[in-house]
Design a protein that fits this description.
Order of helices and strands: HHHHHHHHHHHHHHHHHHH
Radius of gyration: 22 Å
Number of strands: 0
Structural class: mainly alpha
Helix content: over 70%
Length: 466
Amino acid sequence: MSILGKIKSRCNIEGGYKEFLILAVPLAVSTGVNAIQLLTDRIFLSRYSQEAFSASTPAGGAEWAIECFFFGILAYANVFVAQYHGKKEYRSIGPVMWQSVYLALVAAFIALCISFFAKPFFMNIGHPHNTVPQEITFFKVLCYGAFPSTLNAALAGFYSGRGKTKTMLMASICGVTLNIVLDYCLIFGNFGFHEMGIAGAAWATNISLSAVTIIYILLITSKKNSDIYNTRCMKIDFALIKRFLRYGVPNGTEFFFDVAGFTIVTLIVGSIGAEELAANNVVSTVNHTICMPVVGFGMATSAMVGNYLGKNKASIAQESVKSSMHITYTYVLLVALALIFFPDWLISLFSRGTQATLVEHARPIIANLFIILAVYFVFDAANIIFASAIKGAGDTVFVMKRLLLFSLFLVIIPTYVGIMIFKRGVYTAWVCLLSSVISLAISFYFRYKSNKWKKMRVIEMNIVDE
């Protein structure tokens, strides 16, 4: 059979390309839109001041590293919804959503408490004195928006877990559009608004996230959804919260160490010099932007695996993972080639405004880092898809342990020793990141091939062998 014939044959089967694309494309665009929101923030800040742009990546990364622990826990609602939906226990879906709301309130309170430690933290990490006040401001204001940010991760699971992702896409587009408008108004003080600089970027993000939260809550608690999915049942269910935390905490811990590794690298690189920090900021921002659609593909993979396992169709769940890998790597290879052969266009996005001279001086470093990033991206995609597949069954502890181990011993410690003790450059940090992601991809691949995930569930049900 020809390649075209094989593609056609996989389009309409259960777990095939068509089903995956219907679910994954809105998720990929939605997560991509959120990445564009962050990219837009930093592009606006690059035109506001060099200090604001330099501060946005380490401060934003530090806040996200804290928030992503809770994000990982709450985003796991996606798997609960998928398995309940596959089992056709629709009335159990609403209560899952509300337990996640209560957990998001706890997360917001913790983030608020952590914000009080922003000043001593950023004053003692060795960054240039002119960027530290900007880092403190950006970090603290973003912490104020932790509730809508984490809550949106859980509420989105109501749609992604059921394979209804168009609503997520529309909500994300509304949020990012509002964010762009508010960035323009609040950062620069346009249209009669007070000029707020980097604080304006953070407040624009918080307001747009809150708008998305309101959209989700109004839609999810509608009478139609309440009648089918029991979405107005607001009773606290401690047994469900305990089960939620059993699977969600390892997922959140995995998210935390994944992001913390990158954030710590950024903080360490910032001690080398302004040029290296600028190069790392550009490459990290590009990485986040290109990676988010793959994160969306991973969410779709978890949802499809969870849904088919809820139906006791493990073989179809496996087919959905194959479809995910094929579609994902079509995207990944195109992006990797662009990073290698068209770096100038990407660099040009950041080589204007107040930091133009700095970025231009760092251009050779950025171009070399893009080559490393291309290889990193190829392995990170495998890491995301295979991890998402086994997490869709409930195998979150394995993923957490591997990520914790590799982040600590392949990224954080070697980067610190290489840069702070042996005075190596920014390439050392990215080689450490690359070694970690390659190791993770191999580890998750063999875990997936072991088929242990086929016997796992996060909900109570009888597992039937096919």
